[in-house]
Amino acid sequence: MLTKQKAYPRWDNEVKHLSDKQKQVRLEILNSKEPQKIKDLKKERNFMLHKIKEKTKQLKNEHLDELASNIDKTSSDGGMFQAVKATMGSKLATQVKYN
């Protein structure tokens, strides 16, 4: 039986480390008075934010691939329904658009 899973995967250590580091850099930017140092720190933070975004996108895609393989493995319609429901989670109601 499939259980309801979160719509996003848990972060790995790399994302956590980058997130903590970018927070420190953000505080350094706020406390710095030197324009050149601020510019360099902003470049560094921007690079980290892009890495975080890429990694979380990769993790989400891996999570969706895993859910898709679970759907493919089910043989019954009830199992298929549960798998699709687990993929949608609670976002099903918010994704409905009214014209």
What does this protein structure show overall?
With 99 residues, the chain is mainly alpha-helical. It has one domain (13-85). Helices cover 71% and strands 0% of the residues. The protein is built from 3 helices and no strands. It has helices at residues 13-31, 35-73, 77-88. Helix 1 (13-31) runs antiparallel to helix 2. The radius of gyration is 20 Å and the shape is rod-shaped. It starts with 12 loop residues before the first helix and ends in an 11-residue tail after the last helix. Residues 1-9 and 92-99 have low confidence and may be disordered.
Compute the CA-based radius of gyration.
Answer: 20 Å
Q: Level of helix content?
A: over 70%
Q: On the 0-100 scale, what is the average pLDDT?
A: 77
- Helical/strand content category: mainly alpha
Fraction in beta strands: under 5%
Roughly how many Å apart are the termini? 36 Å
N-to-C SSE series?
A: HHH
Number of helices, where a helix is a run of at least 4 consecutive DSSP H or I residues: 3
Shape: rod-shaped
| Main beta-sheet annotation | none
